């Protein structure tokens, strides 16, 4: 089927588009390239512009009449940035989504998959959550996600739209074939900052060591971005089943395993074979202890479970950063380092090169 992917030139959206292609679908991408990359849209149907531009969106739908479902990934996502620039976040994440939904309803498109966030939850005492856990977003970014979900709940109740909100946890890794990956020059998430510190041979800073976790550092559910992409494809293919009789439903996407920041460092050291010095600092604005999922709703309704573990996510992240200059020439790669990390990166890159001989494996790029 044809599927509109908003934000399809970003880290997650581009990976979703790749997974859709491999599943036999045709993604139509709209991205304003504020954080997305044009390079991630090569060989794909792409429109540069904002989802709040109704004229553009009508043109996209006029020129692609086969679109029946939308995967909405377009958003600003950096928590500390949202604290400093809340107006920009509400404009991009809430107001633009409302404009998009208005256009979809005018055109009779009924089904929307919304990329939401597990940051909207208030974690239980054991730091786990399911879809019925209390909601208590702690940053403007998280609140924009909850506002959109509340908005979708009201709009779908009126009967002209159906929506699935996929609440995912902490994406790591890269497209296993290294077509796309993290595209921002300065990473904002823990693994990205860890790779950056390691590559520059400086200590990694753990921000927040006074949380009530097992070692005082924040706890996260690190889920591989390719697993997230597969879940989005499962959502469009099993939309009716996933709604489970409702017009709006929420589904958690996580591994069900909680990893603290200190444990992330230990796993990174296992993959690289090198010790990473650590310093500590106070929490950043908007930081929370974190949470991980205890839900089986994704398995039951989407037939989806995470397949790739933390070490694979770390290895794929390292491989992407090493390979990234070949895809994004303006961004530096990692310097050559000793140990197993270089081996892991080289192994993944060799696998990609081998797979390029098989166009079916890579996807048609329609």
Give a short summary of the structure.
The protein is α/β, with parallel strands linked by helices and about 375 residues long. Helices cover about 40% and strands about 15% of the residues. It is built from 13 helices and 15 strands.
Kindly describe this structure.
The longest helix is centred in the first third of the chain and has 21 residues, at 86-106. Helices cover 41% and strands 17% of the residues. The N and C termini lie close together (11 Å). It is globular, with a radius of gyration of 20 Å. It is α/β, with parallel strands linked by helices and 366 residues long. Strands 3-2-1-4-5-7-12 form a 7-stranded parallel β-sheet, with helices on both faces. The chain has a two-stranded parallel sheet with strand order 6-15. Strands 8-11 form a two-stranded parallel ribbon. The chain is built from 13 helices and 15 strands.
Question: Could you give the topology of this structure?
Answer:
Blueprint: E1 2-6, H1 11-22, E2 26-31, E3 45-48, H2 54-63, E4 67-72, H3 79-84, H4 86-106, E5 111-117, E6 128-129, H5 140-157, E7 162-168, E8 170-172, H6 190-199, E9 204-207, E10 219-220, E11 222-224, H7 225-237, H8 239-243, E12 248-253, E13 259-260, H9 261-272, E14 278-281, E15 292-293, H10 297-302, H11 310-327, H12 340-355, H13 359-362
Parallel strand pairs: 1-2, 1-4, 2-3, 4-5, 5-7, 6-15, 7-12, 8-11, 9-14
Antiparallel strand pairs: 10-13
What key attributes describe this structure?
two-stranded parallel ribbon; globular; alpha/beta; disordered C terminus; about 375 residues; 7-stranded parallel β-sheet; single chain; 13 helices
